[in-house]
Every structure is written in structure tokens, then in C-alpha cells.
Automatic annotation (TrEMBL):
NCBIfam families: rsmG_gidB. Specifically methylates the N7 position of a guanine in 16S rRNA. One of its GO terms (biological process) is methylation. This is Ribosomal RNA small subunit methyltransferase G. It comes from Coprococcus intestinihominis.
Amino acid sequence: MYSIESFKKKVNMLHIELSDKQYNQYVTYYEMVVEKNKVMNLTGITEFDEFIDKHYIDSLSIVNAVDIYQVQSAIDVGTGAGFPGIPLKIAFPHLKITLLDSLNKRINFLNEVVETLGLENVETCHGRAEDFGHRKEYREQYDLCTSRAVANLSTLSEYCVPFVKIGGQFVSYKSGNVDNELRESEKAIRILGGEIGKVCSFVLPETDFARTLVPIKKIKSTGKKYPRKAGTPSKEPLQ
């Protein structure tokens, strides 16, 4: 059995209260990821304590930038093995969450996780953000969009901002210093109907892992032509 005392301590440092059932769900999820990782590339991090820090605590650290209790609906774009969407759903069961990923094998795995953990109000979607961002049942439907995907902020914003309702926000998980990226993406974010909120930089509890959360508030509707067709946002980021 894993020692979860350190995990509990770090969760408490984020001012989140979890039940034993929720901690057990996190352990089961960890075991499922590590097992599936043997046949499918989900994560390079399989050691329990490091996994806790870099996947769970990192995912939950969004509480430093967002009042999660004011959020009803969220979409996690490029969710991969389910981060940050599933850790957020476990901790905050009130959230109605959509997990979007372009690889069907990952979505099949996430369906197993959702069923095994008994999570409700989770929708999994196989597809690209550039396509789903134009579908009326997803476009401008969410209070919150999250992404830990590795891409520049202009590209990520084009993928993510179209999903967000006016008054909602997209939060990008970044590591280290983002000053240049913020400057370079300011115009793109404005074109997409967003504005950069209060950037939140910190070190994950009891680690040396620097994290920056960039909240982008949706202040007006995104123009119909965005996101552009598949592949374009990454090849030709908005300037």
C-alpha cells in the first residue's frame, strides 16, 4: 500500500478537503495509469510520489487562480491521460467535465477510468479542438477550459478560447517564466475575444517544480473563423 500522508499534507496546503473515498480514487487512478502505461505511452512519471506532485497536486493547483466552486462546467483540451480533468473531477464532484483528446486509445482508457472510479457527469470526446470548437454543443458552452498541453500560448488560446462562455475563462498550465510568451500572445488573445487575467506563479508544495497559471478571461464572442482548420493554429500561430 502507498503512503499517502505526504499527498494529504500537500492537498491541505492547497486548502482542499478530501474524503478517504476520494483519496482511494486517486490511488486507483494512479494504478490504472501505471498499468496501462506498460502498453501505451501515457506518462513518463510512474513513481508514486513524483506522480502525486507532477500530476495530482499540479492539476489541483488551479485553485490558486480560480474559484473552482463558482465553476459548473469545464472542458479539458488535449487531456492525454486525463490531466488535469480527472484529478479536478475527483476533488470537485460538482463539476460537469468534458475530456477532449485526439487519440482514441486514450479516450478508451479514460472511459475505463470514469467507470472504475464511478465518476458521473464526465463526457469523453475523441477529436481535435479545431473541429470541436466549431460544434454548437461545445462552442462557448463552458465556464472553464483547461489545458496542460505543450504549445505556445497563441496556439493554445486558439484551441481553447472558443469553448469558453463569455464571462468564463481558459487557464493554461505553464512552467517557468512566461513573460515573453505573454507579450507575443497578447494580440492573438484579443482577436479571440479574451484578455489575460492575473498570472499566478508558484512552486508546487515541497518541490522545486515551478508552475505558472495563465488565466484568460473571455470578454466577447470568438469570431466564427476561429479556430482555423486542423493544423493551422500550430503551424501559423496568430500574431
